[in-house]
Amino acid sequence: MASFLVARNPQQDSRLPYLVRLPLEGGLVLKARAAWPVTARVYCHRFEEPWPEDADIVDEARVVVCRRRGAAVDLVVDRPRQAGSQFVFTEVKGREAIFWQTQKTARAANPGGRVPRRRALAEPVTITVDTRERYPYRFIHQGAETTRAGVAAGDYAINSPDRSLITAVERKSLDNLAATLSDGTLSFQLQRLAEIPLAAIVVEARYGALFRLEHVNGNWLADQLARLQVRYPEIQLVFADSRRYAEDWTCRFLTAALADATKPKQND
After folding, report:
1. Model-level pTM?
2. CA 67 – CA 76 distance, rounded (Å)
């Protein structure tokens, strides 16, 4: 069973007197200013050495959840108090900075800012538009560049330098959503999207419009959609109200996914 460990930092001249070990990536070890973010966010830094074999343990707990989510690592341990926290990886003046926080300390330190963010992208994002996409989004107002190419899954995608897919979005008009739900092809599209690290479906309509379609039972469509969402919980489904907002959301989603996939530079 994985454990969350806090020990005293053997580097006595360090301003960060604690070590924190997360059961992630073979054991992620950080130096920390405090043993838990009780009243304020705790500044952390990567520990350059392996976890000490004779570590002076000051806290230990069984891990329920330890999962990287983009620019953050969520940590939940099995105890009634001081159970949930989050490590946010960001940059300050071009250098990596790590902040350990709870919901309470995050709210106190940054009211109005809840979502951890990576650094802004230095260059305009280039979005690959599938060659089979008719009347595609152009992303003029979003300042993104586009290129046409075949996309393995979805209609809009961003590739890594080695051409592997980082993220993709499948666009659906309301009629196309209803058609692919009715004939069963949406499940196969979701199957392909699930092979991509981050993927989503955006619908150019409101959810309530499903129930106003003619010649098809809206309740039946909603049931089929719910079953697919349960089967593929990793695929986000967004009803974006209109084509305009769907285009805007698509660009924001792809850009955010690219930013999270682009790790900040390490400083020696």
Report:
1. 0.69
2. 9
